[in-house]
Amino acid sequence: MTAAASPVPRTPWGLWRSPYLWLATIHLLGDAVVVLTSGLLVLGATAVVLAGFPLALIGIPLSRWANRWVYGIAGWERARARVTRGQEVPALVPPPRAGSAAKDAALAVKDPGLWRQFIYYVVLFWAAIAWLFVVPFAWSVPLVLIGLPAYYSYFAAAQAQLGPFVIDSTTRASVVAVLAALFLLFVSPLMIRAASWFDGWLVKELLGPSESGVLAERVHQLVQSRQQVVDSVEAERRRMERDLHDGAQQRLVSLAMSLGRAKNRLGDKEPAVRALIEEAHSEAMQAIAEIRDLTRGLHPPVLTDRGLDAALSAVAARSPVPVQLRVDVPVRPSLTIESIAYFVVTEALANVAKYAEAAQVEVLVIREDDVLRVEVRDNGRGGADPARGSGLRGLADRVAGVDGQLTVDSPPGGGTTLIAEVPCG
């Protein structure tokens, strides 16, 4: 999208008072110079892109270089629009490197940005010719006609020829002069403004990204920012897990050991005190178990160290319902994606143990191209409804946070199938 540094005046009087009118005039007259310099350079660079591509070793680097050169020249033109009109136009982005010289050269030839910039200079050529007539007509002709009475009085004979019109009296010459002055005051600024608007429209449409391109870039930025938020949340979970494991859990272990030693030293003395110590020792052990379960649910160290296969194997071994596990992830995704997959499986197995009344669970985790697919199937009573269960809604929200998708198929009496697909490219 394009923004101006200040609003362009709409009235002739406002234009006369604004530097925009004079800067726009300079810009329009400068178009002819641009066509003869930058335009010819772009024409030559485009020809190099096309002619260089078939020339293999020498031509392919030339095609890539010429493509980048066109983008650089367009940057000069956007800078000129910014200086003379206050017009801010986002830069077009060259095609990314494809990984090989031949592919890069092919992208350079097919690059729509290259051809948009080429078309800009072709259109500007004809526009510059038009401005060479429009601008002098807007400024010079009215000024000449304003001096017509003096010319008629001192230099003309009985009559003066003005195109198809004949000026044969001072009165007619004065009328023409008044009309020319009115034209200069009210029409000429609007002519320059209209020409400058069209020139700016060309820059915006052909040297800047399209509206769909701007929206796509904005969506890309939002996706990146959301990914950064998700990654920061996962990093915070891992930090909490480390703090709980290395801090509170170790203190509770030390407390439980001290209570155990106190109980052993007390022996059979003071039964009431021994009972209190045993109760405190039991509470400490229970707190340790709860913290261990909590940290395991946040982000177990084995997941970071050894990946999904080892982490989910430990989860399957602890499940009260027999689990048949298969993990086929040859290339590890990011820690964020691994954490989400781990969370989906652990939460699904917890729901199976609580509600499904199942005798068997199958868990499949597989990477297909750039998608990590997690399937959890049980042979329980079914009837799971994401709309009624906060646990399934939480799973769906967490998967959706990374552009993933969660589907649940759970007919009554037919078991439950939960499938999560998460991009991991």
Automatic annotation (TrEMBL):
Enzyme class, broadest EC rank: transferase
Catalytic activity: ATP + protein L-histidine = ADP + protein N-phospho-L-histidine
Domain Signal transduction histidine kinase subgroup 3 dimerisation and phosphoacceptor: start-end pairs: 236-303
The enzyme's E.C. designation: 2.7.13.3
Keyword terms of this UniProt record: ATP-binding, Kinase, Membrane, Nucleotide-binding, Phosphoprotein, Transferase, Transmembrane, Transmembrane helix, Two-component regulatory system
Domain spans labelled Histidine kinase/HSP90-like ATPase: 342-423
Segments traversing the membrane: 20-53, 118-139, 173-192
A GO MF label: kinase activity
Domain Putative sensor: start-end pairs: 40-207
CDD domains noted in UniProt: HATPase_UhpB-NarQ-NarX-like
Protein name (Swiss-Prot/TrEMBL): histidine kinase
